Amino acid sequence: MGKRAGKRSIPSFLSKKSRSVRRTELQPMLASLPLSMSVEAPAAQAVAKGAKKKAGSRLWMRFDCTGQSEVTEYDKSAIIQRASIPARDLRILGPIFSQSSNIFAREKAIVVNLEFIKAIITAEEVLVLDPTCQEVLAFVEQLRQHLLLNSPSKVNDLPLKTRSSIGGQCFNTENCEGEFLPFEFKVLEVALEFVCTYLDNSVTDLERTAYPVLDELTMNVSTKNLELVRSIKSNLTRLLARVQKVRDEIEHLLDDNEDMQQLYLTRKLIQNQYLEAFMASATSNSIVVSPNLARRSSNIRGSASFASLHSDDNNVEDLEMLLEAYFMQLEGTRNKVLSVREYIDDTEDYVNIQLDSHRNELIQLQLVLGIASFAIAIDTLIAGAFAMNIPCQLYNINHIFTFFVVGTAAGSFLIFLVVLAYARWKKLIGS
């Protein structure tokens, strides 16, 4: 037993010694490696975690009231915290509801989902989703130009007479100085104008394509023309549904004054600021307004008091006029779509009448051929009866064959004329 233990201890001792020698040789090599290689694995893990965190972020373009913009990425939690909106509103702006049209009023924001325009509007800024899309780029450029042209600094520098030409409508028609549309209504106006113009142009292009094809179909009913009309009709149905959705959403807002009141974000912001200032100075006899509050209220209501702002909550005339203008424009676009669809229906009726006329002609031809077949069948019956090998005295008469053939043919033709005249008398065949 002792010998066996001694024999095993020698290789184990040598193996431990060799491992220690290898470790001492590798330590200088590891020390000479750069630090970046040693921390490569933790850095890769950190990047992977960051990618997972930013997986739910989307590209947004932010505009302020002066028209300055920046493109940033926000995740859902950042948007919810920034705009104070529920999470379900972000699902409405997602790709699942891309074909829907909605305008929702929240406490501090307006959620706009009109066709391809998906935005969140607050009293101080607007966030536009996916600004790099081809259809959204034109809207972003138009919004930038509109905000730059109607920025508070430029509007206040202009004379009072020229402000109405670029600033839009006023809150109060009696005193328009410094009382233009608030920021949220400016953005909403640009969005509605862009969507209405886009839909109207789409209808115009469809009209330009539909009318020549329909006229060609009336002259030549072919498979190619029928396929083109079918494609135009399907596009028309989809376009009518899109116009109807936007129109119904605006009509829903016009029918409910409470929803329109909730769209006044700037008014609610000023009221909250006045209320906070009033509560802060409740112990004193005067209300001290902050400079930021005074500057903001001068752009909207001038030097109005909190009581006057509170009493003006039910005044939604300016927003109602704004929505009615685009509602009438959408109504006109819808009427154009309906007129095209009515023209298509009329063309289909005309084509069906043509096909029915051809079908009637074929039926009449078939009836005439049937009458002729009946007359020839009688002649064939007589000829077949005399063709039998039966003794008959008529066979002994000279030249009887010629008279027989002429007589049977004349009789068959007479029968044909009689039946044809009867069919015309019964109006089974056109004259």
Model description:
The chain has 431 residues and is an alpha+beta fold. Among the domains are: 265-311; 356-425, no CATH class. The protein is 69% helix and 7% strand. The protein has 16 helices and six strands. It has helices at 2-32, 35-38, 40-53, 76-83, 87-92, 134-149, 152-157, 160-167, 183-219, 223-255, 257-262, 265-280, 291-300, 306-311, 317-386, 400-425, and strands spanning 58-64, 69-74, 102-105, 110-114, 117-121, 125-129. The N and C termini lie far apart (132 Å).
Give a quick set of tags describing it:
431 residues; alpha+beta; 7% strand
Give the SSE map.
Layout: H1 2-32, H2 35-38, H3 40-53, E1 58-64, E2 69-74, H4 76-83, H5 87-92, E3 102-105, E4 110-114, E5 117-121, E6 125-129, H6 134-149, H7 152-157, H8 160-167, H9 183-219, H10 223-255, H11 257-262, H12 265-280, H13 291-300, H14 306-311, H15 317-386, H16 400-425
Organism: Vanilla planifolia
Protein name: Magnesium transporter
Transmembrane segments: 367-388, 400-423
Sheet/helix structural class? alpha+beta
Task: Give the averaged pLDDT, no decimals.
Answer: 76
DSSP helical segment count:
16
Distance between the termini: 132 Å
Within the largest sheet, what's the order of strands? 2-1-6-5-4-3
**Run of helices and strands:** HHHEEHHEEEEHHHHHHHHHHH
Q: Unreliable segments (pLDDT under 50, ≥5 consecutive)?
A: 1-53, 158-179, 286-290, 293-307
Family: Belongs to the CorA metal ion transporter (MIT) (TC 1.A.35.5) family.
GO molecular function: magnesium ion transmembrane transporter activity
Pfam families: MRS2-like (PF22099)
GO cellular component, one term: membrane
